Amino acid sequence: MGRAEQHRRLAQKGLAPMAAAGPRGRDGPSPREFTTVRHFMMADLGLSGLPLLVYARIFGFCDAGCGYFESKGGLARFLNVQERSVHRAIRDLLDRGLIEECGMHAPARGHATKRYRIVRERLPPGALATPDDSSGFPARKGDEMTGFAARTPDEMTGKPLTICHPISKRDNKDFRR
Q1: 3-state SS assignment for residue 105
Q2: Predicted TM-score (pTM) of this structure
């Protein structure tokens, strides 16, 4: 299916404005900014509509190891919906126990925003890409890495790691000309 056919189908379903609107950076919409809706979000958690999109956005940040603290206005612009609708969707997700508030994000400039994270206990097995500290969720018993993944860089290379200092090529005895 070509791009024109995809756009036509989105337009028929009323989704073309959302796909075209996207977030705007300094140079317009960014093709690298997206949200992935995963099957378990619908099948296991029973989400649909705007709460599904909001959950998918928060999940994407948490699963990538980042905190989620986007403003509600920014999320509304990203999803091309009213800010009030985003407030209702977040309240719905909080009431269902699928997300939780975890503090505030206060940048040096600008407005403070609430931070949210996914409630890990509500996820089906295998939903997370990385179930360790880098996922934005605290590691739990049984989540420890083992085998190859648990090795430190020292064990993997055979050479001990030292503090890194720039060294010129002529002073580096390991540099081959």
Answers
A1: strand
A2: 0.57
Instruction: Centre a 10 Å sphere on the Cβ of residue 167 and count the other Cβ atoms it contains.
Output: 11
Q: Report whether 35 contacts 19 (CB < 8 A).
A: no
CATH number of 35-140: 1.10.10.10
Answer whether 146's CB lies under 8 Å from 120's CB.
Answer: no
Name every residue whose Cβ is closer than 8 Å to that of residue 154 and which is 6 or more positions away in sequence.
160, 161
Domain layout of the chain by residue ranges: 35-140
Contact predicate 101/116, CB 8 Å? yes
Q: Quote the strand ranges of the chain, DSSP E.
A: 24-25, 28-29, 99-105, 113-118
Q: How far apart are CA 176 and CA 86, in angstroms?
A: 59
Distance (Å, whole) CA 106 – CA 19: 30
pLDDT in tens, 116-150: 999 989 998 888 765 544 444 555 544 455 554 45
Residue 19 forms beta bridges with which residues? Answer: none
